[in-house]
């Protein structure tokens, strides 16, 4: 059982030490280790080693690599997964918060760039510069990472669909839902929003219309197929299986078990207006 996570205290943002490296990568872009070495001018004698075992430091910047939904080349599979726009990640075997490398990663002044892939043989996708939201003392250490380029909801909100879609909840059950790692892949979320826009499918609400710039591009994404009915691992189609919805409508969809359909909630909304 995972140990309870504890928040990571944050000091003011560092002065941008990661920018010379972060600016060389496009969020969502695909990169091999050789690409990263070349873009960052990593000398040959500094290549390999920790770069192939999870996380490496170069010129004060940490590069973190993880496999989401697949066993790493080291043979370890700790269940690294995206939940909404945050990443739940596990360190190397035996890693603890007091280890020097983990202390460095958790330090709010340390620039951390995260790369991930869903298949062990694929190149990595750059997710962006990250900050630790919480960590715990489990073995290996578990860290929740948020990203500077996204609006990140609370951890309680992120867990809502997994808990509400189950008739009963057993501690650790989320780890057994392999598809969850794919469904919460940020690329699937972006593909859904790119198709339908940041407008609620149910009520037409747009966050930018009400809140201005801070709401630009923000919307939650609803899974039309409840996780409890997925029947194990399946391939997610972000256009067919996801819909953008506002926070209120998302909550109302999950007020019923199984969740209401989009059409049912639209009908209820129209009847309530009358």
Q: Can you describe this structure?
A:
This protein is an alpha+beta fold. It folds into two domains: 6-152, Roll (PUA domain-like), CATH 2.30.280; 159-273, Herpes Virus-1 (2-Layer Sandwich). Helices cover 26% and strands 20% of the residues. It has eleven helices and eleven strands. The chain has helices at residues 19-22, 33-40, 100-106, 155-158, 160-164, 179-183, 186-196, 207-211, 238-241, 247-253, 262-273; strands spanning 6-7, 30-31, 55-58, 61-67, 81-83, 86-90, 112-117, 124-135, 142-147, 220-223, 242-245. Strands 1, 2, 3, 4, 5, 6, 7, 8 and 9 form a nine-stranded mixed β-sheet that branches. Strands 10-11 form a two-stranded antiparallel sheet. Strand 7 (112-117) and strand 8 form a beta hairpin. The model is unreliable at 1-18, 70-76 and 150-184 (pLDDT under 50).
Report a brief summary of the structure.
The chain contains eleven helices and eleven strands. With 274 residues, the chain is of the alpha+beta class.
Features:
single chain, 274 residues, alpha+beta, PUA domain-like, Herpes Virus-1, 9-stranded mixed sheet, two-stranded antiparallel sheet, 11 helices, 26% helix, 20% strand
Q: What string, H for helix and E for strand, traces the elements in order?
A: EHEHEEEEHEEEHHHHHEHEHH
Rg, rounded, reads: 20 Å
Please report the distance between the alpha carbons of the first and last residues. 50 Å
Reported by name, the CATH topology of the largest domain is PUA domain-like
Which percent bin holds the helix content?
A: 25-40%
InterPro entries: DUF3427 (IPR021835), HNH (IPR002711), HNH_nuc (IPR003615)
Organism: Tahibacter soli
Protein name: DUF3427 domain-containing protein
GO molecular function: endonuclease activity; nucleic acid binding; zinc ion binding
């Amino acid at each position: 059982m995972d140990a309870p996570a504890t928040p990571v205290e944050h000091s003011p943002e560092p002065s941008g030490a990661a920018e010379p490296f972060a600016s060389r990568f496009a969020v969502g872009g695909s990169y091999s280790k050789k690409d990263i070495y070349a873009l960052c001018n990593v000398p040959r004698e500094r290549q390999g080693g920790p770069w192939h075992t999870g996380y490496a430091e170069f010129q004060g910047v940490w590069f973190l690599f993880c496999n989401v939904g697949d066993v790493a080349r080291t043979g370890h599979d700790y269940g690294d997964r995206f939940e909404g726009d945050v990443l739940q990640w596990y360190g190397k075997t035996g890693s603890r918060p007091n280890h020097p490398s983990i202390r460095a990663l958790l330090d709010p002044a340390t620039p951390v760039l995260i790369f991930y892939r869903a298949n062990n043989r694929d190149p990595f996708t750059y997710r962006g510069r990250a900050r630790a939201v919480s960590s715990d003392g489990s073995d290996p250490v578990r860290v929740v990472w948020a990203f500077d380029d996204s609006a990140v909801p609370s951890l309680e909100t992120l867990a809502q669909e997994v808990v509400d879609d189950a008739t009963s909840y057993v501690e650790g059950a989320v780890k057994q839902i392999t598809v969850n790692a794919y469904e919460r892949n940020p690329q699937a979320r972006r593909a859904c929003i790119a198709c339908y826009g940041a407008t609620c499918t149910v009520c037409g609400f747009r966050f930018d219309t009400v809140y201005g710039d801070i709401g630009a591009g923000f919307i939650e994404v609803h899974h039309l197929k409840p996780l409890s009915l997925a029947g194990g691992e399946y391939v997610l189609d972000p256009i067919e299986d996801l819909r953008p919805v506002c926070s209120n409508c998302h909550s109302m969809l999950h007020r019923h078990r199984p969740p209401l359909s989009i059409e049912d909630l639209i009908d209820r909304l129209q009847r309530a207006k009358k």
